[in-house]
Design a protein that fits this description.
- The complex is a heterodimer of chains A (261) and B (268).
- With 261 residues, chain A is mainly α.
- Chain A has one domain.
- In chain A, helix 4 packs parallel to helix 7 and helix 7 packs antiparallel against helix 10.
- The relative contact order of chain A is 0.14.
- Chain B is an alpha/beta fold.
- In chain B, helix 6 links the parallel strand 6 and strand 7.
- The longest helix of chain B has 16 residues.
- The N and C termini of chain B lie close together (8 Å).
- Classes of the chains: A mainly alpha (261), B alpha/beta (268).
- Chains A and B meet through helix 2 of A and strand 1 and helix 3 of B.
Chain lengths: 261, 268
């Protein structure tokens, strides 16, 4: 816990470096693209349309206000998937900084986490608009949203740090992460509700911290209620543990990075 | 005189893997099953002790693999020592590898900005220093071209300009002066002399005996991680050459004639 907090001071000390790199990452992403920021929204909207057609119309899955349910899970998921996909190769991609300059390696990892997070936050107003149009009654539980976003930020940073560290030694992870993300996506109730899962397989939901996180978003942005204590505490505890473990692995192996990148 | 750098009993070893660098998951699994550990230990620095006074220049010499670059990385704070004491005063600006710190796809300007932020500058300072850096480096319009199109000399000009313009207390140069042309090398030398006159400290790793003899106040000779000689640059270089079987090279072998700076030794 203490070391995790200490590691946060590095981000503060190098805040201008982080600011510069996040800004560059965001501007590079939209440079030369006609739709720009709209791409961030088009992705979840496209999947919302496809899943609604396939599951609600073709397969006749009966979930109330299905498009709103989909959207309130897909938008936060795209932060996780985007940051983890980009973050896994971040240390390897930043090889020109490794071991030759004072550039702190943690910064390489937090940049995609923040740039994808900023994308997510900027798409929130449009998400609100959509769910309101789709007749969701957003309630006082909205005040919990910043906390959930912080929990997700810690979780994504922890996962990305861990993945980036091991990717230095085993590049397979760079390829593997896309499959891991696909598996996680299907294992997390984003296009189905937990009650549809048979009793026998409920443990896959109960023990999935990402399911707990997405459930918090569903509560606030779809049901208009407060997240359950279980979902909140589980995702919070998991994010702190993951960040701690990731930090530990990173510190243990970082001196070896320059030999392997 | 206050020391700018103090190193006492410094030790550093590396554990490196004998497993091929581009190991795949399959290799790893196979090796784990065969119970191969594949780890070797190399002692890069053994009980190294020296100090550098403020306003002086230290030259480090030694054969390849003698621990020079490891020492520089420890002085820069990039690596942590296993044992011993390392103290540096004020801001340390390292220039340790050509192209280090510059992303090939970013422009020289963007790379320089990132380097400045890495050295702890804030946006106002960065904006103020940029013009100075561009002027000093003399690379002109290339500042906005991607770094991958830069020649080695241009890259060195830019990196050196960044390091000098932040006005650090300690400047670390690891074997990068050799790629500059005659004019810029002379400029570097003048800058380092000026730097030194302002009480700043420079540490240079080089294979050019002339640089050690005429730029430096002290020389440190590292051999297999240990200090083999420390003191007067001419004496240390002579001892180094005597042992490595090299004769003293011709005075003007380095691509320019250096002004003789013997008189400067009296400055301290």
């Amino acid at each position: 816990m203490v070391t995790t907090l200490q590691s946060l001071t590095v981000y503060f000390r190098y805040r201008w470096l982080v600011y510069e790199l996040v800004l560059r990452d965001l501007s590079l992403r939209y440079r030369g693209s006609a739709l720009g920021f709209a791409w961030t929204l088009l992705n979840p909207l496209l999947f919302m349309a496809i899943y609604t057609l396939v599951f609600a119309v073709y397969l006749r899955v009966d979930i109330v206000n299905y498009p709103a349910f989909l959207l309130s899970g897909l938008v936060p998921w795209s932060w996780l998937a985007g940051a983890l996909g980009q973050g896994t190769s971040s240390i390897v991609d930043g090889r020109m900084y490794v071991g030759k300059t004072l550039f702190p390696m943690q910064i390489l990892v937090i940049v995609p986490v923040l740039s994808n997070g900023i994308n997510f936050i900027f798409s929130l107003p449009i998400l609100f608009l959509f769910v309101i149009v789709l007749h969701v009654h957003l309630g006082p539980s909205l005040v919990m949203l910043p906390l959930i976003i912080l929990i997700q930020g810690a979780m994504v940073l922890g996962a990305a740090t861990l993945a980036a560290t091991f990717n230095v030694f085993y590049r397979d992870l760079q390829q593997l992460i896309l499959y891991i993300l696909t598996v996680l996506f299907y294992m997390t109730p984003i296009f189905y509700i937990p009650s549809l899962v048979p009793e026998k397989f409920q443990f896959l939901i109960v023990w999935n911290p990402f399911a707990a996180l997405i459930a918090c978003y569903h509560a606030i942005l779809y049901a208009g209620t407060f997240p359950s204590v279980y979902d909140l505490v589980f995702s919070l505890v998991f994010s702190i543990l993951l960040l701690g473990v990731a930090r530990g692995c990173f510190v243990r192996y970082r001196e070896a990075f320059s030999e392997y990148v | 005189m206050i020391d700018a750098i103090r190193v006492e009993g410094l030790c550093k070893s590396f554990r490196y893997s004998t497993i091929p660098k581009r190991a795949t998951l399959k290799d790893m699994v196979v090796r784990t099953m065969r119970l191969q550990r594949g780890v070797a230990v190399v002692e890069a620095l053994k009980n190294v002790t020296f100090s550098v006074e403020r306003g002086s220049t230290l030259g480090i010499i030694g054969r390849n693999g003698s621990g020079k670059s490891t020492l520089m990385r420890i002085l820069a704070g990039i690596l942590k020592p296993d044992a011993g004491l390392v103290e540096t005063a004020g801001m340390v600006a390292p220039l340790l590898a050509l192209g280090g710190g510059f992303h090939p796809d970013l422009s020289g300007r963007e790379g320089a900005r990132i380097e400045l932020f890495t050295l702890g500058m804030d946006p106002a300072q960065v904006d103020r220093l940029m013009d100075q850096i561009i002027a000093f480096s003399e690379i002109g319009d290339f500042i906005d071209a991607p770094v991958r199109v830069y020649s080695a000399g241009m890259l060195m000009r830019l990196a050196f300009s960044v390091a000098i313009c932040v006005n650090p207390t300690v400047l670390l140069l690891d074997e990068i002066l050799a790629v500059g042309d005659e004019g810029f090398a002379r400029k570097c030398h003048e800058t380092i002399l000026d730097f030194r006159a302002h009480g700043r400290t420079t540490v240079i790793v080089t294979h050019a005996a002339e640089i050690v003899e005429s730029w430096c106040d002290t020389a440190l000779w590292l051999d297999r991680g240990e200090v083999s000689g420390l003191g007067d640059p001419r004496a240390v270089v002579a001892a180094y050459h005597a042992l490595t079987g090299q004769s003293l090279p011709e005075p003007a072998q380095y691509p320019f004639d250096l002004p003789k700076t013997a008189g400067l030794h009296g400055v301290d």
